[in-house]
């Protein structure tokens, strides 16, 4: 039972970490259409902004000036939290691989392997909380930006939605949290 639970938690953690990495690297955190005719489709990400022409499907991307340039707080905070979540999830995966019962590393000391799995669960929990805070922070800021435009009657046909990268970040963080619960609470 313990080995099956460990492998299940590892598979979920691996998939969720991939989701977190994809969310950090991709460029569709916020989606908006610039006009009511929806001639173009714009995705804003953490690293660049891409515009897709809906008529011919041509996509052009503009990199942000510099990583050290002045950026909105939502981009800086989300970048920091997502990169930290990625690093912690990767560290947790490495510790979890070494702590799995099916791996021959430290087979003679099962207590140490169990502590490695527990430690991986704690690290994974920390990373998942940071990733969830980063994803939700960005989503809330997108919602507030839209609400400010509507309340000031500056709607102008622009609508904002959460992009698939934002949803991917939330899903990856939630999966990492579930994997950490499996490792910390259910393994003993």
UniProtKB/TrEMBL annotation:
Location(s), subcellular: Cell junction, Tight junction; Cell membrane
Residues spanning the membrane: 118-140, 162-187
Gene Ontology CC annotation, any one: plasma membrane
Keyword Signal among UniProt keywords: yes
GO function terms (MF aspect): structural molecule activity
Coiled coil: none
InterPro entries in alphabetical order: Claudin (IPR006187), Claudin16 (IPR003927), Claudin_CS (IPR017974), PMP22/EMP/MP20/Claudin (IPR004031)
Pfam families on file: PMP22_Claudin (PF00822)
Signal sequence annotation: 1-28
Topological type in the membrane: Multi-pass membrane protein
Keyword list, A-Z: Cell junction, Cell membrane, Membrane, Signal, Tight junction, Transmembrane, Transmembrane helix
PANTHER family given in the database record: CLAUDIN (PTHR12002)
Family: Belongs to the claudin family.
Biological role: Claudins function as major constituents of the tight junction complexes that regulate the permeability of epithelia.
Protein name, per record: Claudin
